[in-house]
Each structure stands twice: as structure tokens, then as C-alpha cells.
Design a protein that fits this description.
Length: about 110
Amino acid sequence: MPRSTNAVSSKKRRKKILKLAKGFYGSRNRVYTVAKNAVEKSLVYAFHGRKRKKRFFRSIWIQRINAGIRLYGLSYSKFIKKLAEKNIKVNRKFLSDLAMNDQNSFKEIVDKIL
């Protein structure tokens, strides 16, 4: 019986990896074995990057809220504590947007907690 190579599936699998490696430098986008390692590593970086992005945005929101609340003589931590005491549930993304773009609404929230 002749040897079966399954060439169609093998080629499809290799093409998929080389397509993902498009734009990589040197042999990383041409040689299958090197490209496979590079693609695996890049997918790991992509996964961690999505998690890191969330942390990064949260820290930006906190900095913006802190800058906005300093105008009223409070620190960020005291502001968040007073929000919790008054049972005002507003997320940091929304608060940072108010602090930057709508100071009047932000001042109303500050007045409610003071």
C-alpha cells in the first residue's frame, strides 16, 4: 500500500502559521519552524497585552480623578472612601470622564459627598 502524506492538511496548517507571521522580520516570516515559534510567542504577548491594557486604563482613570479632585482640596483615596460611605456607585471610567469633560457635573458629585 502506498504511503499517505496528508499533504493538503499539512500545507493548510503551514500556510496558516506563515500568514500569522506576515510582517515579521527576517526568517521569522519565511521559515516555517522559526515562524511557528515566533507566532506562538506573539500570541502569548497578545494575551498578556490585553490584560495589561485594562490595568493601564484603570491607572489613567485614577490619575484623572485625582487631578480633578485636588482642585477641591481632597485626595483620591479620601474621595473614593466618601463615595462609598454615601453609597454613591459610580465607576472610575465615568468619574474620570466627568472630571475631564464636564466639571459642573463632577462638582455636583463632590458637593454631595462634602
